[in-house]
Amino acid sequence: MSEKQGFxxxxxxxxxxxxxxxxxxxxxxxxxxxxxFLPKSGPLGMAIGMLLGAGIVIVISLSYGYLIExxxxxxxxxxxxxxxxxxxxxxxCGWALILAYWSLIPLNATAVGLISRYLFPGIIQVGALxxxxxxxxxxxxxxxxxxxxxxxxxxxIKGVKGSGMLQTAVSLILVASILLVTVIxxxxxxxxxxxxxxxxxxxxxxxxxxIFAVVAMTPWAFIGFxxxxxxxxxxxxxxKKSLFLMISAVLVAASLYICINTITAIVMPWxxxxxxxxxxxxxxxxxxxxxxxxxxxxxxxxxxxxxSGMNAFxxxxxxxxxxxxxxxxxxNIFAEIDPKYGxxxxxxxxxxxxxxxxxxxxxxxxxxxxxxxxxxxxxxxTYTTAAAAVLAWKAGHKGQSFVGMLGxxxxxxxxxxxxxxxxxxxxxxxxxxxxxxxxxLGIIFFFIMRxxxxxxxxxMDHILQMKGVTEGSCPVICQE
Length: 480
Prior knowledge:
Helix content: over 70%
Distance between the termini: 23 Å
Structural class: mainly alpha
CATH class: Mainly Alpha
Number of domains: 1
CATH superfamily: Amino acid/polyamine transporter I
Radius of gyration: 22 Å
Strand content: under 5%
């Protein structure tokens, strides 16, 4: 591959950090305190569960950092699974991630309408069309979501430099807004007795279940830190910095989650608050303490979270499609790089086209899909850590191999929380049906592509060598 045909290396460290943070912290940071974190865990239970989840993700990220250095190419988990375990495993991992990444694009786009419902009711809720699964679908919300989808697609097509700069800006504004709101609320309302009880033990819940109800949400809450390897070909800096960028993004994201949850619980006794307004408790307490300016400020933060999430997952989904298409796991059209902008233009357009259909189904249906994509993220975590364990062992890096095995245990633990009946994160029946449908589609598509995909056994090694991944940096080639 010539330099002219390849990606442009224009992402700065701060852009990549913003890519991860913006993908992790979405609209849910402002909604979940009232409808999930406090009702299931309580203030302290949420904080402990979030920090424990962040610690587990950091253990997993150690394997990501190791593999990014060894495979500094787009595709991330797909490349790692293919290189360590073969093409079938690569396809399984990649197929699981495609939906996990893509579904968060339209979900974030439709969150603009959700923000409007909370902050400015009725402004874009015009042109009622129909109701799906209890969710009223409005033409106004579809139009607004579509405008955001098209605008972010256009920006991503024009080049990674512009999307990277946008990501940095909105991520920094997001952090600043949340910190400012937190400081003001804590300054005005610091009666820590309002945080009692610190665990939600009503209904027979144990302290353990309070904590692990949040830990079970970790694959969903922290999905996005793994966007970093998807852009590995576009770094303008050493790949050795990627581990620090991931870990710092995870720690900052966990802190922001805890900040919003804490200020939601501290203004008044939090159980009384939930009884009054379980739908948007965070907005209620911010308006109580800061008035309309506070709501405006949190609205800016929520909009930044939405834009940064869409931008990050546009980039990640298109690069994953590109990487899979390069080895014939997907149609070749997705492997084309625009010679002018250095971006996978057709992949981005495809992601946009599919995303434009999603708002017509309403947020409730999208939530079913997004809930089950935690399985895809957990599966990708498991494959990545297992690949790091195997490849590090072959390369003689025993310490990293042990860390990878710890990550495998963590990934399997997340899968168990989601798939074992009775566990805190067990998927709802609608999400299990969506998972089954996506699995069947993957099997069908694999059999359609299997001759081209499996036909060239050296395809991945060939691609890696063309991109400059030499024997000194690639453990799988080194061993073979």
